Amino acid sequence: MAHAYTPGLRVTGWSSIAKERRLPLTGEVMVKKGDHVVADQVVARTELPGNVQPVKAASILGQHQQDLLEYMLKKEGAPVAKGEVIATAKSFFGLFKAHCHSPCEGIVESISTVTGQVIIREPPIPVEVEAYIDGEVIEIIPNEGVIVETQGAFVQGIFGIGGETHGEIHMAVSSADEELSERHLEGNVAGKVLIGGSLITHAVLKKAASMGVKAVVVGGLDAHDLKVFMKKDLGVAITGSEQLGITLVVTEGFGTMAMAGRTFSLLSRFEGQKCSVNGATQIRAGVMRPEIVICRTKAEAADESWEKTFSMSAGLQVGSPVRVIRAPHFGGLGEVTALPPELTPVESGATVRVLKVRFLDGTEAVIPRANVEMIER
Fold first, then answer.
1. CATH 2.30.30.30 residue window(s) in the chain
2. d(CA 8, CA 1)
3. Dist CA 353 CA 184 (whole Å)
4. Between 157 and which of 148, 251, 261, 333 could a Cys-Cys bridge form, CB atoms 3.0 to 4.6 Å apart?
5. Angstrom distances, CA of residue 246 to CA of 125, 204, 207, 241, 375
6. Could you give the 3-state DSSP secondary structure of residue 372?
7. Which comes out higher in pLDDT, residue 233 or 160?
8. pLDDT in tens, 206-244
9. Cβ–Cβ under 8 Å, residues 223 and 199
């Protein structure tokens, strides 16, 4: 029997995780299938063409563009240094000279006798793709990249900013409902991934970035604090390309929201362990969630209980853990107790499919299925 798609978050202590690491254009793959790689290891590299700098050489020399080749000191394809003379013209019976200088280091790409311009292309821009996670190369994408696979804990958040990074997990607070404040930044936190509780302000986030913290994972964030920290309104496009000096992952939502107990407990197990973090988020088609990946080997996990009691692949069913994502029960965590098949009228006047949820405090509510997301545990 088919089931309706229900979005969901993964919060699991043991999972197989594969990441595609691909260049933006063809290049060189630096590893082989079966190689073990670490998060900061370069697995593929290429070069982007450098920027071009047009120079109005004929105009600078005071000569007609058709005669430009006569005055050029550099031919097409010749390397030039910044400030180097690339063309010279004499005037007034040779008493005066006019010089044209290169505005940058690069290569003379073209000389036009139609426009009178010389095009200088700057040096190519190197692009390197790192493995992002510790793991094994299971597939080579010829001239483009690789797929790296690992096993370990995997936690997805609701929202994030900042790109890929990695560091050692540090439990900055003692409980999931404790606000992350400046006093939690005492000591050596540089290079760490800080796990907070219910909230972080823009001032604390800014200080954490200045102290060299790699990433912060926290339950909630005020929308105003996000705007102040980013110094602009957040658009609807994908996040992750921000150059803010720190990566942020919000696990619950906007406002003061205690981190889910399971998430906080899971991250606490890995105090002092290395993890990879990515704040990239996309809420439109092709949903992308911010994430924390803690790589583990089967041997390391052998003495711990990682059995999953629920998988999202089974679809929404009685017993599925869910989170409510709209008011009036926004942020509430619970378990599905019933899935009535019939359509039910709701306050908006629409007739939709609903479900019954028992929250952690024992209360129950009937909620439209579109207002919940599943949580893999």
1. 312-376
2. 20
3. 45
4. 251
5. 24, 12, 10, 11, 27
6. strand
7. 160
8. 999 999 999 999 999 998 999 999 988 876 668 888 889
9. no
Top-level class of domain 312-376: mainly beta
Sole residue written with tokens 């028992």: 358
**Residue 300 and residue 24: Cα distance in Å, rounded?**
36
Q: Which of 43-52, 171-180, 226-235 has the lowest mean pLDDT?
A: 226-235
Q: Which of 249, 238, 183 is nearest to 215 (CA)?
A: 249
Architecture of domain 53-121: Beta Barrel (2.40)
Q: Quick one: CA torsion of 45, 161, 271, 154, rounded to 10 degrees?
A: -70
| Domain spanning 8-16+150-301: CATH 3.30.450 | no
What are the residue ranges of CATH 3.50.30 in the chain? Answer: 8-16+150-301
DSSP string of 20-32?
EEE-SS--EE-S-
Token reading at 106: 């690069």
Q: State pLDDT tens for residues 65-117.
A: 999 999 999 999 999 999 999 999 987 666 788 999 999 999 999 999 999 99
pTM: predicted TM-score of the whole model, two decimal places: 0.79
Cα–Cα distance between 204 and 98 in angstroms, integer? 57
Structure tokens at 12: 């699991």
Q: Which two tokens stand for residue 68?
A: 């430009």
Q: What is the pLDDT of residues 113-139, one digit of tens each?
A: 999 999 999 999 999 999 999 999 999
